[in-house]
Input
Amino acid sequence: MRSDSLLTTGYRYFVAVAEAGSVRGASLALNVAASAVSRQVILLERQFNIALFERRGRSLKLSAAGELLLAGLKAAMLGHETTLDHLDALRGLKRGRIRIATVESISVSALPDLLARFAADHPGVEITVTVAGSDAVTDLVRGHDADIGFTFNPATLEGLDVRLTRDMPLGAVMRRDHPLARERKLLFAHCLDYPVAWPAKGLSLRAILDKMLGAAKKPPANAVECNSLRLMAALARRGRCIAFQTPIGIEQEIAEGSLVFVPLANRRIPPDRLTIVHRPGSGGGLAASAFLDLAVRHFAGGGRVRK
Output
């Protein structure tokens, strides 16, 4: 939250408790005594004559009134920060705040490149990044907890504007000395003769591979299931198995030759679709709009993805 926040102390402490789920967690985040945080929340509840939290031991859950107040405060904060961004625009984009939600693969290489380029031009802009699953990314943007989202194959785009979609090639990833590494293309079923890394449920790749597995009618010979694309790539790099993913997030390993990316040749492979989203209207202010434009240009032009 900016130092020039529109919120009073009571509202700031309320938001902190809502986000932390406890007075203790909020006090640590705010670096304020827990008694001071608790007192401000009690004063707000007395002011509105309604409970803002449901007490469950030491944890606190927002009541219906608390949910309504939190949504209103987030909207007010967003509007205030957008106004400040517009004022900044009169003297150049020297400050601002951008909240980015992204899936893991984008956070490895593409996003750091974009952040470095943006920071060089706009060093005064504050940026926070949250790495989450595909649907969690869209939920964060929809819930005003992020301004921009980078995701793959989200279940729904309701309430969001899509700035860019790009279908990414799906392939088998392995060490250069793997028996299949010299193939130009591979059938999915052929890969299943070897140990594979299998994405856990919740990753966008899992739904794609489950459909392909059903069509192949052939269970994997030996599978390691995990919820991290980086871990799957690391297992492939050590010769443990074949991983399935797009080149995004393993660009450096492919360029160095520690991993080989072999496109899958199956027909009608469901697309692994990169999607960049933001909320309709403000989009998070001028700083977020500037970063969004940079990201769209990067991915629309192919970025630095190497096959």
Remarks:
- The chain has three domains: 1-92, 96-159+276-307, 171-268.
